[in-house]
Amino acid sequence: MAGVEVSFITQLQGQEPEGFAGRLKQAATEGVVNENAFPFAVEEITPELTAEALSLARQLVTPVIENPDPYRGNTIKSALGPMIDGTGTFARLAYHPGYHQAQVHMIKSAPGYPG
Questions:
Q1: Full-model pTM
Q2: Is residue 56 within 8 Å of residue 4, measured between CB atoms?
Q3: Distance between CA atoms of 111 and 29, rounded to whole angstroms?
Q4: Other Cβ atoms closer than 10 A to 114
Q5: Do the Cβ atoms of 24 and 3 come closer than 8 Å?
Q6: Rg of the Cα atoms in the chain
Q7: Phi, psi of 76 (to 5 degrees)
Q8: Is the Cβ–Cβ distance between 60 and 21 less than 8 Å?
Q9: What is the pLDDT of residues 1-60, one digit of tens each?
């Protein structure tokens, strides 16, 4: 989730993130929607790293969401490939956490899920 948020926001702003933010941006697509290697090793993905990723994404997203008008006309490439304008980007960002919450609910509700 944090990877898509970092990807969308940095594209809207015309920035190329580096370091941890750059790896998060890559996580939106690498090894998920394409055949490239995922930018994080399984051993790295801890609750602490997840919290850091979500915190960084929030830090980047908040000021842009609070003042979206300068970015509405910008165009980005979505994680799944289509080009979308800024307004479409904000719509996707608004629903993104809900989408993943629904995925978790479906997985946890599946027959045989250990629970």
A1: 0.86
A2: no
A3: 29
A4: 4
A5: yes
A6: 15
A7: -130, 165
A8: yes
A9: 899 999 999 999 999 999 999 999 999 999 999 999 999 999 999 999 999 999 999 999
